[in-house]
Amino acid sequence: MADSYRRARERDPANANALRQEQRAWLRLVREQCFEDDCLARALTRRTVGLEQPREGQIPRRAYGQFSRTDEACFVANNEEGRSCEGEIDSSILVLPEGLDRVGVYALLFFFNGHTCQFEGQGQWRQGQVVVNHHEENSCQLTLSYSESGITTAATEPCRDYCGMRGTLDGIELERR
After folding, report:
1. Residues in Cβ contact with 148 at an 8 Å cutoff, skipping those fewer than 6 apart
2. Per residue in 88-142, pLDDT tens?
C-alpha cells in the first residue's frame, strides 16, 4: 500500500495535503479498528484500489473526506440528572474512493453511555447522494446527503437499529473536517 500511496501523491501533487489527511483518517478510523485478519485484508485491498484509481470519475471530489461531530461523553450516573458527562468524543464517517464508480464508507460513532457503533460498506453516487449497502446486511441501506458544510445520514428500516438501542444510523449530521 505504501507504493500506491506514493504514486497517488505523485499523480496529484496539488492535493498531496488532502491525501495525507485522508490517509491519516483512514489509518485511525479503518485500519486501527480492524482486529481480525479478514477485516484488515479487506480494508487494505479496498484502500489500495482506491489509491490506484484516478480521482476523476463519476463521483465528484466533494463526496470524499472525513465528516465528524464532537459530543459530550455522557454516562448513566446516580445523581439528580441520572447522567454524568465527562469530556468529549468524536463520531466520524470517512468517505474514500474505491474505484471510478464506488466509495468506501467507514463510520465510527459514539452514543450515550459509551455505546459505540462501527459501520462499513461500499457506496455509489446517485443523484447527488452516496447510497451504501452494508457488506453483511443486504437489506441495510445508508444514504449520505451532502450540504455545504457536511452530510446527513438516512437509513432504511433494517438499518436504523444497526447500532443497537442507544444509537441509530438515521438522521446523523456531521461536518466536513
Report:
1. none
2. 999 999 998 887 778 889 999 999 888 999 888 888 888 889 999 875 656 788 9
Task: Say how far apart CA 163 and CA 1 lie, in whole Å.
Answer: 31
Assess contact for 20 and 5: CB atoms under 8 A: no
Q: Cell numbers at residue 134, please? A: 452494508
CA–CA dist 28, 108 (Å, integer) = 10
Q: Domains of the chain: which residue ranges?
A: 2-176
d(Cα 36, Cα 29) in Å, to the nearest integer? 15
Beta-carbon contacts of 93 under 8 Å, excluding residues fewer than 6 positions away, are: 66, 67, 68, 105, 106, 107, 109, 144, 151, 153, 172, 174
| Packing angle of the helix pair 2-11, 16-29 (nearest 10 deg) | 150
Q: What residue has cell string 468529549?
A: 88
Is the whole-model pTM more than 0.85? no
Confidence (pLDDT) at 77:
92
Strand partners, 173: 152
CB 22 within 8 A of CB 64: yes
Instruction: Name the packing angle between helices 2-11 and 37-52 (round to 10°).
Output: 20
Q: Between 16 and 152, whose confidence is greater?
A: 152
